[in-house]
Amino acid sequence: MQQLIECVPNISEGRDIDKINEIAHIVSTVEGVQLLYVDSGYATNRTVITFVGEPNNVVKAAFRLIKKAAELIDMTQQKGTHPRFGATDVCPLIPIANITLDETVHYAHLLGERVGKELGISGYYYEYAATSTKRKNLANCRSGEYEGLQTKITDPSWKLDFGPTVYNDQIVRSGVTAISARNFLIAYNVNLDSTSATIASEISFDIRESGRKIIDKNGTSLRTPGKLKAVKGFGWYIDEYNIAQVSYNLTNINVTPIHVAYEETIKAATKRGVKVTGSELIGLIPLAAILEAADYFLQKENRALTISETEKVVLAIKKLGLDDLKPFDPKERILEYNYKKL
Fold it and tell me: Out of 25, 82, 106, 109, which one is annotated catalytic?
């Protein structure tokens, strides 16, 4: 009954491969921790690192990673298209096997306490580890980004949860870190045959749960909800691919599976005269999500569901266009195929 949790820190460096490797591979210095995947983006200037292990070992590895990132990343020099406010921008812990989400919250708080006391790095708890309702949403914690930290942390309602609570040299250099316990999340981008970030943003407003803000005839700001629950999203232009993308976080794939987000994006894009060319997965995906997508497409085409697992995986990759921008290796990108060696 081995307990396993996954950790998916996002660091604010996606261009310097030497720095990325040094930060990512520090987790392998902890016995019992397996580094699963490192996914970097040049335009976002961000790297998503995935590793797994028993809870105490994962906390130790995450601590070492946060320390190394603070040593190597200078936030005064960092620029990129992805929202960020720290060298280790976010560090979520996700229950994988034989451990509850409530138990995982304990380890998130343990990590934050160590980071604050031993490294002098400050930050917030979010999602299930949050200390207040408004801190559950990462976007609220990160609003204002790195450039707005000096003002934000002086607001009593945004007092830092761990580490020094005053603006200091450490915050200037490494920013702050958001630590959480959460369910499995899929970071997922849908590719457009357009370079317009405006169109991509409009599509995201149609789809994401929070929808869009509108002003009524009385000048009152209102929000109209989007089509899909458990979806966060925005649009951007990615210079390295010369395309616009609709960038999603699918926060509960039991509510909104990956294939539903993809199909609804196609509909919203078509209304604007734009085509979807494929999609991009950031990090790893559970096998069940891939097989569910395959079954959806098989049923859509009135085909039998009795083909092999391998054939379903190949079909889902093709139908979702997951290899549109770069090769997609199931042995690397599907969670169960990757960590089953533990």
Answer: 82
Residue at a domain's end among 181, 207, 240: 181
R_g over Cα of the chain: 20
75: CB partners within 8 A, 6+ apart: 12, 86, 87, 146, 172, 173, 174, 175
158 plus 241 within the same structural domain: no
Q: Map residue 91 onto helix, strand or coil.
A: strand
3-class SS of residue 333: helix
Our answer to whether residue 259 is catalytic in this structure is no
C-alpha span between 194 and 274 (Å, rounded): 7
Domain that holds residue 139: 4-181
Cβ atoms of 240 and 223 within 8 Å: the answer is no
Q: For the chain (length 342 residues), average pLDDT per consecutive 10?
A: 93 98 98 94 95 97 98 97 96 94 97 98 97 95 97 96 97 98 94 97 97 85 92 94 97 95 98 98 94 98 96 98 96 86 52
Q: Under the phi-then-psi rule, with left for phi > 0, alpha for psi from -120 to 50, and beta for the rest, what region is 120?
A: left
| DSSP label at residue 8 | -
Could you tell me the pTM of the whole model?
0.85
